[in-house]
User: Fold these one by one.
Assistant:
Number 1:
Amino acid sequence: MTRLLFFMFCLMATKVAAAVGIVARGGDNGWPPSSYFGPPQHNNARPVLGYSPDVLHAALSTSAFRPEFVLLPFRRCLSLAEQGRQVQVVMGATFSAERARLFLFSHRYLHLRPALFLWPGAAPDLPLCGLIGFNYAPFGLKPEDVDEGSSSYLLVMKKLQAGRCRGFAEYAEVGRSLQWLGLLGEDGRRLQARLLPGLVPVPLHFMVSRAYPDAEALLRQLDRQLDQMGRNGQLDALLARHQPVEQ
């Protein structure tokens, strides 16, 4: 019995020693269903919630990789991830050839559909409001079509309420989650969503830093599990936690 207990202790110690901590980050401006801050806890810390952390945690649960989730300004997030030391994974990323030189891309785990969220009764000749640094090219919009002077959606909502713009462009899944979670304020549910016709849905991926020594092994684990989770319906079930069921 003593030998058996000793063997079990050594086995558990080996498993603990084999665990590999990684840091996965997303933007801190709140971009559900991908990732967003939850309500403050007893120590005033705000947990990172969202579909992307849920998917990453589930995909790595059978591996030695143990993810930690942090939200930062997205540009800083990318800069740290390029180095691969403090940050190894970027959540909710769209593909570009420029990024592919620095990162490995996982299989897609969500498609986002471009849409408009319109303020009821707003004059159609008013511009759309938008966020600083947001890429509106997938929405077929030119820079002159969007007032990009807001740093958050709560400030966008204030412009809508003041009659300065007629709505904003956002992916349908993101906008609906913002409404559902109350992140647009009390008037957020008044916005009317309209899909933009003729535009291709945009896939989201996990990006793994090429500078991270275990990048290839991490990517293989992610892709294998993402494929399986897609086939067995687990991805759909995780997404339903963070947005309303579409009627």
Note: Residues 4-17 have pLDDT under 50 and may be disordered.
Number 2:
Amino acid sequence: MGAADLTWFGSGSFTEAVQRLKLPNVKFSPHYLWDATRHSEPTVNAATVQIPPSRLPAAIAHFAEVTGMPRLPSDSWPVVYQTLESYAALHVFNFTEASKWSRDQATEKGFGIPRAAFTFVIRACQNEGTKLNADPSPEATAIARALFNSVLKRAELAGLEINETEKRELADWIHHQDQGF
């Protein structure tokens, strides 16, 4: 029994295993643990936002269902692109760090964008040849274009027939401004 077999030494969870250690001054929240004598409680400026499928426009809900595209509010997409653009310009690319850093930066700005959304866009960039480790690093518009093209390809591979109106709805929702698709 141990961490490797997910029994957490008979405790059932990581949190319970740490609590059993009875470490002085340890505090817990749903996503953090910290030493209260050394650190203040971590704050989260925004809740993670994903829109239920019933509240998305029909075409967007369908794209999300078929492709796995995150169900973010429309106004979150530019934040994703701008944050990834900043990451690419400031860091040596590391996939894990790119999604974590980007999520944390967005949270600090008041946007609760889940890490999985950044991961989805990073993979779209890789699939479309928009490398975040390129020199020069990609701009937000290139990242948006990569996401748009990747979602369309995923939808087509899944057998979804996409008309021009649906393409326009997707482009508008994710703030892809390139008219030449």
Note: Helices lie at 14-20, 58-67, 77-90, 95-108, 115-127, 140-157, 164-173.
Number 3:
Amino acid sequence: MATSSEAAAIRSRRLHTVKNVEENVKAARQRALEHQKRIENLAKPLNAVSEKLARLDRERDAVTAARDRRIESLQSGLEKKIEKLKADTAAKIELAKKDTESKLAELHNSQRGSEDALLLEYAQAVVQFSFGGSNADLATVLGVPQKEAKELIVSSTADLEKAGISASRPADAAPAANSSAPAAEQPAPATEDKDAAQTAPVDAPALASA
């Protein structure tokens, strides 16, 4: 069992040790705070630059986002305009078709009489030509085969007969070879095929045929 003096010595050492521990802890804490402060001071330039870089990134992201929204809006508007333009154009095309068809119908009706008259006039000119020229001559003038020229004379004569029109022979259309014969005895113009003869209109001279 320790004496009173030994116990006092133990208590003295214990107090001295506790005091040292507290002081050491306080000193360590102080050193840690100073180190942290020093690190923070050293990091200030880095943090400042990092903040500037982050600000640049935010600005760039904002501009990019604004651009994307603008492009999306323009594309959406363009698509709507294209659809509307397509619809308007299709409607105008249909209107133009209907208008053209209507005008063509009106024109056809208004020209029908004139066209019929001109076709009969053309048939009369063909028949009159045949009085003084052969099928070959007509084929040369029209630039068609001789057979087609012959068929044209036949059909033109039939058209005139159907319309009750007589094609008169021109005064100078008689063949030169028969100029010495009396007018009443002049034969019809000869054709390439003498076995086939085409009958002229009622009051017209005989029509040449091939």
Note: Helices lie at 4-132, 135-142, 146-163.
Number 4:
Amino acid sequence: MKKHRKWWSLLFVLMFVLSLLPMKGVVAEESSQQWCVSTTSSTTIYAGQNIPIGTVDFEFVADGLKIVIDLNDGVVLKDAAENIKIDFRQLPPAGSLIRDNPGGYDYKTYSNVDPTQLLISYADLAFYLGVPVSTLLSDGFQFNVFLHLDTIVNGEEETAYPGDDPGLNPWVRYVTLTVEECTPPPPPMDDYDVYTIGFWKNTFNFDKVTFSYGTTVTINGQTYSVIDDREALALLMDPAKKE
């Protein structure tokens, strides 16, 4: 009798793990709130006021605001300390459109690679803007980004900014970002096989996934019996991979 109870316990654990596993062809339920940023501002980077030298991209990711600076061929960041300086400001009247001293900007760093990727945590970004994180992550919240670059263009040192020009003297540009609620689309099912619940939560942030399963599971092209083969249980716990 005790032996039968042991097997029933093992089977129960296995079925519980399988109940967490999304499989190919699954329809996933959407997660709780997620946030994106959009911009109607120019994201072209200009040096010397009107020379386009590259672009910048802004994206809300899991850990904060990702900024990708991509310079054109023949343009490089100047090899100097803090060649990237960024100021995050609320829109007027709370925030100014004047350039101010880039040495006093919120965030300063050095890069010698292209493209350059930066990540500003949500906590730091809210601090720079002087608002709670809950305000930062609210639908319709807007803020300006002043991105100052020290660059070398055609062998000459140039100051560069992306975005719109408010027509002030000295010249400066800025990019306006708008926070908006969003839901990322599910992955194309033809491109995926079997994944653990961690894959769906971490990559697509789905809180709950419903699916159906039988007595076999196919992982990386190999079929396992979920009843008889304990190896299947171990494989289910492996990190998910995209084929």
Note: The first strand starts at residue 28 and ends at 29.
